[in-house]
Specification:
There is one protein chain. By secondary structure, the chain is α+β, with helices and mostly antiparallel strands. Among the domains are: about 110 residues, Helix Hairpins (Orthogonal Bundle); about 140 residues, Heat Shock Protein 90 (2-Layer Sandwich). Helix content is about 55%, strand content about 15%. The chain contains eleven helices and ten strands. The strands form three sheets. It has a five-stranded mixed sheet, covered by helices on one side. Helix 1 runs antiparallel to helix 4, helix 6 packs antiparallel against helix 7 and helix 9 packs antiparallel against helix 11. The radius of gyration is 46 Å and the shape is elongated.
């Protein structure tokens, strides 16, 4: 807000300065006698008189008459209704009558009107920018900070602003997505906590029984061999029960912990590749990494274009992190009813034994170095491709890492 007020004050100051400068310049030129055309013509006639040459007044636009002073009739010499100029030429006094409209007031008024209109237009444009762009943006500037702090209930008013309507819509979608993820995370934590408490309680019962039997056997309370065998069988059964609870814990921990939604439909290969070009052409150029997109035939694919772009982005990000920074290329192959999009990068240091694990969750290879990550990128890619009825695989040959995504054609 303060910045706009400063700009508005500066613009108004410039407009006032232009007004003053134009008026001063115009008035100074109006009072300047040196540039008046009748004086030029009078000087030409003066030169002709000095040279003894004749002159024709019809050739002059401003000088209408030239009279010589008569000593016997001086009063009439200066008594005339016309504008005139007095010059002494070769000992004689001449009167040069001229016509010259020097009334520039109308022109000055027109100039000031034009400047006023321009000033009004500029100020109107500034206020339009303020109400349509600056003020709406000022109301949105706190939204990212609130979202970063976890305030997901902040209200975003819908509007039809042509400049920020889509931006507001995108922010609201982001807020809803974060709120949904937060709700899912809390529900997951609740389910995990409930499961742990339930299983802990269930395990305590057979453990208590096993503990009692163990103490009884330790103190040799049971003399009969048949009774001991029955207790041993009971302990074995409780162990099986505990093993079942442990299996439930392992099964719960192995269940999919990511809720990956895919809206399967149809999209063109070119649309997906154009998005990848838009994301990475400038970025890789700044990183001095050669980005090659080989030729391909456009076709209609099955799946979710946003998820397809996400898969290729994950693969390319890995190529940037773990490659040698020289080259990344996209190539295309057509096999049966599928299109294979391959991302290749130079400088791979991944061994063949590690290659089979790159799509496992939380797995990171020996080539990670100082690069941060969760080990979920390619795992997510595999899950997404499976949900789009596709596939993903990787191969490494001659230090060139290639990860290929298989998309079904329509």
């Amino acid at each position: 807000m303060k910045g706009f007020k400063v700009v508005l004050a500066a613009v108004i100051s410039v407009i006032i300065a232009v007004f003053v400068a134009v008026n001063i310049l115009f008035l100074s030129q109006s009072n300047d006698e040196s540039g008046r055309p009748y004086r030029v013509e009078a000087s030409r006639i003066e030169q002709a008189i000095l040279n003894g040459e004749s002159f024709d007044l019809s050739e002059y636009n401003y000088i209408t008459a030239v009279e010589v002073l008569d000593e016997n009739n001086k009063s009439s010499f200066y008594n005339t209704d016309s504008d005139f100029l007095i010059k002494e030429i070769d000992g004689s006094v001449y009167r040069f009558e001229y016509k010259f409209n020097n009334d520039n007031s109308n022109m000055l008024v027109l100039i000031n009107i034009a400047l006023t209109i321009m000033a009004v237009v500029v100020i109107v444009i500034l206020f339009y920018i303020y109400f349509k762009m600056v003020k709406p943006f000022n109301t949105l500037c706190e939204v990212p900070f609130e979202l970063a702090k976890g305030n997901l209930t902040i209200a975003l008013k819908e509007n039809k602003n042509r400049f920020f309507g889509r931006f507001v819509w995108g922010l609201d979608l982001l807020r809803e997505k974060l709120e949904q993820q937060k709700t899912q995370e809390l529900a997951l934590q609740k389910d995990k906590k409930t499961l742990v408490l339930s299983l802990s309680h269930d395990i305590k019962t057979p453990l208590g029984i096993i503990e009692l039997y163990a103490k009884a056997l330790e103190k040799n309370l049971y003399k009969e061999e048949e009774k001991k065998n029955k207790i041993a069988a009971s302990i074995s059964g409780k162990c099986d029960e505990i093993r079942g609870y442990v299996d439930e814990i392992i099964k719960a921990s192995n269940e999919d912990f990511l809720n990956l939604s895919v809206n399967n439909g149809e999209f063109y290969l070119s649309a997906m590749i154009n998005e990848i070009k838009r994301f990475y052409s400038d970025k890789l150029d700044l990183l001095k990494i050669e980005f090659i997109v080989n030729k391909y035939c456009d076709c209609l694919l099955k799946g979710d274009i946003d998820r397809g772009v996400e898969v290729l982005q994950n693969i390319i990000e890995n190529a940037v992190k773990y490659g040698d920074g020289k080259s990344i290329s996209l190539s295309f192959a057509h096999e049966e009813d599928c299109i294979i999009v391959s991302v290749s990068n130079t400088g791979s240091q991944l061994s063949d034994s590690e290659l089979t694990h790159i799509f496992d969750s939380f797995w990171r290879g020996s080539n990670v170095g100082s690069n941060t990550g969760s080990g979920l990128g390619l795992y997510i890619c595999r899950r997404l491709m499976k949900k789009m009825d596709g596939d993903i695989f990787a191969e490494c040959k001659d230090k060139i890492m290639t990860v290929s995504a298989v998309f079904r054609m329509v």
